[in-house]
Design goal:
The chain is an all-alpha fold. It has 7 helices and no strands. Helix 2 packs across helix 3. The longest helix has 28 residues. The termini are far apart.
Length: 181
């Protein structure tokens, strides 16, 4: 379980680093995220900025907590990440889509992919990873360096794939024909 916990720490860490960074880096990044929260129409309009700020703070805190090599810290980080994914990402997306809002997902920066079932599935997967990581954080023992390296690479690679999931799915979508002129 030590290696599973290590892979989960890195997977959740890289996903939340990318998510927070794309909301903070650039002159309009945070404003664009606030606008996307507003467009989801899940919360009162006045709450958009404070909720967006709370989301970014929670993302950064999740990364810090899973990076600290203590079981209690990891469990807190995984718990915070799972709660954020469940509340904002999954429930917010479901409510927004049911209301007919198809605002683009701003989870990892600018995107043209509208919110939809894929984003809910992605978030449920990440919640499962966080729960598995929290369980694994309770295990003790020493790590074999080679096995730890494999677990670390696995976590980073899967985390990277999660970040670019919209792009990967777009590769397999049928191309819409352009109208003839």
């Amino acid at each position: 379980m030590l290696y599973v916990a290590l892979a989960c720490r890195l997977l959740i860490g890289v996903v939340f680093v990318a998510s927070a960074a794309t909301k903070l880096v650039g002159t309009s990044a945070f404003g664009d995220f606030v606008a996307s929260v507003r467009q989801m129409r899940v919360l009162p309009r006045a709450w958009s900025r404070p909720v967006a700020l709370a989301v970014v703070i929670a993302e950064v805190l999740t990364v810090v907590l899973v990076a600290i090599p203590l079981a209690a810290s990891a469990m807190a980080g995984f718990g915070l990440g799972a709660a954020l994914l469940a509340a904002f990402a999954s429930v917010g997306i479901v409510i927004s889509v049911r209301k007919g809002e198809r605002t683009p997902c701003r989870c990892f920066g600018k995107s043209t992919t509208p919110l939809g079932p894929l984003h809910v599935v992605r978030n449920v997967f990440l919640i499962c990873v966080a729960l598995l990581g929290a369980a694994g954080a309770l295990s003790t023992g020493s790590l074999d360096l080679g096995a730890a390296a494999v677990a670390a690479v696995a976590g980073l690679v899967v985390g990277g794939l999660v970040i670019v999931l919209d792009d990967i799915v777009d590769l397999f979508r049928p191309v819409k024909p352009t109208p003839a002129r």
